[in-house]
Amino acid sequence: MAHLTPLIAALTVDLSQLGTADGEAPRVIKLLPAGTFRARDGRPAECPAWQLDEVLAAILIAEANQRETRYVIDYEHQTLRSETNGKPAPASGWFGALEWREDGLYATDVEWTATAAAMIVAKEYLYLSPVFTYDKHGRVTGLLHVALTNNPALDQLPELQVAALSRLVSLTQSVIQEESAMDELIEQLRWLLNLPVGATADDIKAQLQKLVDQLSNGQGTAAASVDLVNLVNTLQQRIAVLSANQVDPARFAPVDTMRDLQGQVAALTAQLSGREVDELVVAALSDGRLLAAQEGWARDLGKSNLAQLKGYLDTAPKIAALSGTQTRGNPPVDEPAPGLDADTLAICSMFGNDPAAVASALKE
Question: What's the chain look like in SS3?
Fold first, then answer.
């Protein structure tokens, strides 16, 4: 990703104006003034003036609080020169805390090396030169580092030093972007693994290892051999099939309810069947298709096989004598012998009380 060349400047701050306490180098130093300001050499040329207010300072302070390394104070901007002259760039001091005050931005926890502190107290170094970045409107956007210097000409920052600073800032921006991308990746992994917001990289690594073990069934299968996307799709298809085949309680009645309904249907069927058998038997007895002696047999047959009973009654002849009298209510001429049962009396009536005919019928 291409980076825009940052606008970079350096100022000179009179170190003697900061004062010392009991012959010690100052622990609090002013880095940038409040409001609009320009350099003594007429810069900036790209905008009317540089700008720094409480809002812009808050961004610089937040950035300082997030840094893992402290800002360096070197000698004569050797941090920029070392790339070309090959010499080391020793630190004269360090700071990490920034604070906004009414008159500007301050470093409040400066720690000097013994060598640098002695030179400051001895006034061997009189100036500080903070290096910062700014946008096209002149608004200060970043603080890079600070140098002890006695040469105000360094305020102009020769082109070679600007180029070095540009690479430094670009590298810093790349690192910030990489860190931002890493933070985003970690956040996505937290979401994927259902981990809390405060989960660390070690927590994520441990959870990922558990997932790898599950996918490989404890046999150490290589991660490349597991197609997670295909695995998830397969599991989703299986879940969909199982969901489609699930028993819907709204469509299926409980077993006890079904059994109760079956019992009620059986009882109603038996009741209707018994009523129909009763009607068939009563009708057959009344029209002579059944004799009184056949009633029990007919009822049992109807309970076990109603169709068979109907078939029998459909073909059985109706015996008029059993449903009425041949004498139309008049007593017969010849009275049958007393002591005969009802069936025998009916047969006698059928054959006009003819003893021979009755005897023949009874034999049959």
Answer: CCCCCCEEEECCEEHHHHCCECCECCCCEEEEECEEECCCCCCCCCCCCEEECHHHHHHHHHHHHHCCCCEEEEECCHHHHHHHHCCCCCEEEEECCEEEECCEEEECCCEECHHHHHHHHCCCCCEEEEEEEECCCCEEEEEEEEEEECCHHHHHCCHHHHHHHHHHHHHHHHHHHHHHHHHHHHHHHHHHCCCCCCCCHHHHHHHHHHHHHHHCCCCCCCHHHCCHHHHHHHHHHHHHHHHHCCCCCCCCCCHHHHHHHHHHHHHHHHHHHHHHHHHHHHHHHHHCCCCHHHHHHHHHHHHHCHHHHHHHHHHCCCCHHHHCCCCCCCCCCCCCCCCCCHHHHHHHHHCCCCHHHHHHHHHC
DSSP lists the bridge partners of residue 143 as: 132
Task: Convert the pLDDT of each residue in 230-250 to its tens digit.
Answer: 666 776 777 777 766 665 655
Q: How far is CA 107 from CA 33, 53, 99, 283, in A?
A: 12, 16, 6, 121
Interatomic CA distance for residues 96 and 60, integer angstroms:
11
Beta bridge partners of 106: 30, 99
Beta strand 35-37 pairing with 127-134: unpaired
Quick: pLDDT tens for 301-342: 888 888 888 888 888 888 766 555 555 555 555 555 555 566
To the question of pTM greater than 0.85 for the whole model, the response is: no
| SS3 sequence of 18-82 | HCCECCECCCCEEEEECEEECCCCCCCCCCCCEEECHHHHHHHHHHHHHCCCCEEEEECCHHHHH
Are 32 and 132 in contact, with CB atoms under 8 Å apart?
yes
CB atoms within 10 A of CB 121: 15
Distance CA 181, CA 186 (A): 9
**Does residue 3 have a pLDDT over 50?**
no
Query: What's the CA angle centered on 288, arms 349 and 362, to 5 degrees?
Result: 50
Extract the tokens encoding 241: 């099939």
CB 132 within 8 Å of CB 98: no
